[in-house]
Amino acid sequence: ILRSGDGGDTWATIPSGVDVELRAVAWTGDGFLAAGDGGSALVSADGADWAPLDLGTEEDIVAIASNRTTTVVMTADGAAYTSTSDGGWKRRYVDRDIRDIAWIGDRFVTAGGLYFSLDGQDWRYSQVHGSGLETRAVGPAWYDSRAIPVAIAVGDGGTIASSREGGEHWRLANSATGLDLFGLAASDAAVVAVGGTHVPSS
Fold first, then answer.
1. pLDDT tens digits, one per residue of 103-143
2. Cα–Cα–Cα angle for 136, 141, 32, rounded to 5 degrees
3. Per DSSP, what are the bridge partners of residue 161?
4. Side-chain half-sphere exposure of 100, counting CA atoms within 13 A
5. In this structure, is the dihedral angle defined by the CA atoms of residues 162, 164, 170 and 172, taken in order, positive or negative?
6. Contact residues for 150 (Cβ-Cβ < 8 A; gap 6+)
7. 3-state SS track over 81-128
8. CA angle, 58 then 137 then 202, to 5°
9. How far is CA 190 from the centre of its chain?
10. d(Cα 150, Cα 139) in Å, to the nearest integer?
11. Would you give the distance in Å from CA 72 to the centre of its chain?
């Protein structure tokens, strides 16, 4: 674990207390949640002092998303672990192909298997217009002066898909590249996707 307390200028290594790969981290509204292989999960209020969290799984954790009220943890076996109001976690199987998850303003959406959920517990499969959709990462963007939230997913072979219907319907875009895309980020003015010729090790 690396932590910065000055806006990213300097970084310090923080002992995690676990001997596994940590693959995802998110701010949940009242603290950080980091998780990874073997179901290992850690929580911290400030990113400096970490304590173990039992999610009730030994599966590898591949992605985390939070809207600061509800947190969803996705595992490699296709399950979603959703935080509950009593401090527990509720498991629901979604899809083994899911590789990423994001909160896009009013719902959660996933990449790999394309699903969406308003509450992180009840999931619906998305309709895809086009074929060959192999996505790896998903994130929010905006359309029409931030009036309409948009989900963007990127993936293998230059795949880019967008949804202006909250992840319910996806349409393929012409990305003008055949390279695999691994990540994306958006501002009010632009969306940037990055990739290369080799799949990153997992």
1. 998 899 999 989 999 999 999 998 776 555 788 999 888 76
2. 70
3. 153, 172
4. 20
5. negative
6. 104, 140, 141, 142, 143, 162, 163, 164
7. EEECCCCCEEEEECCCCCCEEEECCCCEEEECCCEEECCCCCCEECEE
8. 45
9. 20
10. 8
11. 9
pLDDT confidence of residue 144 = 59
Residue corresponding to tokens 């090790």? 201
Tokens of 176: 């003008």
**Residue type for position 94:** V
3-state class (DSSP) for residue 157:
helix
Of residues 138, 151, 141, the one with CA closest to residue 182: 138
DSSP characters over 24-54: EEEE-SSSEEEEEGGG-EEEESSSSS-EE--
- What's the rounded Cα separation, in Å, for the pair 64 and 59? 14
**Residue 48 in this model has a pLDDT that exceeds 70:** yes
